[in-house]
Backbone:
């Protein structure tokens, strides 16, 4: 599995861009290829997600890890494939998307292509609370400088499937403490299971 690619942007089409590295040109499907127009023949770095199908191996590219995270969450929803997820990301309103999911705003969600009422309801059911709001991003830093153990614990709990809203309360409880990542995880799990 690929995490990212660094290389020279050599071509832009309506569906993908081509990034050349090591003498190979990789087709990378992106949400809006033309937003890269000013970067042709320049060095770029794209975060990647690879999809292997019976008839193809496809690379999907993202400018940021946050954009990639939104894509991965979207394709985890039944009824949303990579093409639809890219179409949603192309709107370039990830904050509005996340807010609509968390606030059960079906009207907003059905404005995206190929998203009907049933799929919008499934998005809300599967994704509500799974996104980390930018202002309370538990993966970035703790409020107390120099507490990487707590940051790692919160990231591990997110990876286990706990919601950001649940972890915000846990973080507040532990923010002024000093412990190991393992102990933070054990203590947090006990709190979450109550």
Residues:
């Amino acid at each position: 599995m690929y995490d990212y690619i660094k290389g020279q942007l050599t071509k832009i089409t309506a569906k993908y861009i081509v990034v050349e590295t090591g003498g190979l040109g990789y087709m990378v499907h992106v949400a809006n290829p033309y937003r890269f127009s000013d970067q042709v023949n320049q060095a770029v770095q794209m975060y990647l997600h690879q999809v292997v199908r019976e008839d193809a191996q496809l690379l999907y590219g993202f400018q940021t890890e946050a954009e990639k995270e939104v894509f991965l969450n979207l394709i985890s929803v039944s009824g949303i494939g990579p093409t639809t997820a890219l179409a949603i990301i192309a709107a370039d309103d990830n904050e509005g998307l996340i807010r609509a999911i968390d606030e059960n705003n079906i009207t907003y969600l059905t404005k995206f292509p190929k998203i009907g009422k049933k799929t919008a309801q499934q998005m809300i059911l599967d994704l509500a609370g799974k996104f980390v709001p930018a202002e309370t991003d538990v993966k970035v830093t703790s409020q107390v400088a120099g507490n990487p153990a707590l940051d790692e614990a919160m990231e591990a709990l997110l990876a286990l499937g706990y919601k950001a809203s649940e972890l915000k309360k846990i973080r507040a409880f532990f923010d002024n403490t000093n412990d190991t990542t393992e102990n933070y995880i054990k203590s947090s799990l006990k709190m979450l299971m109550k």
Q: What stands out?
A: The first strand starts at residue 4 and ends at 12. The radius of gyration is 19 Å.
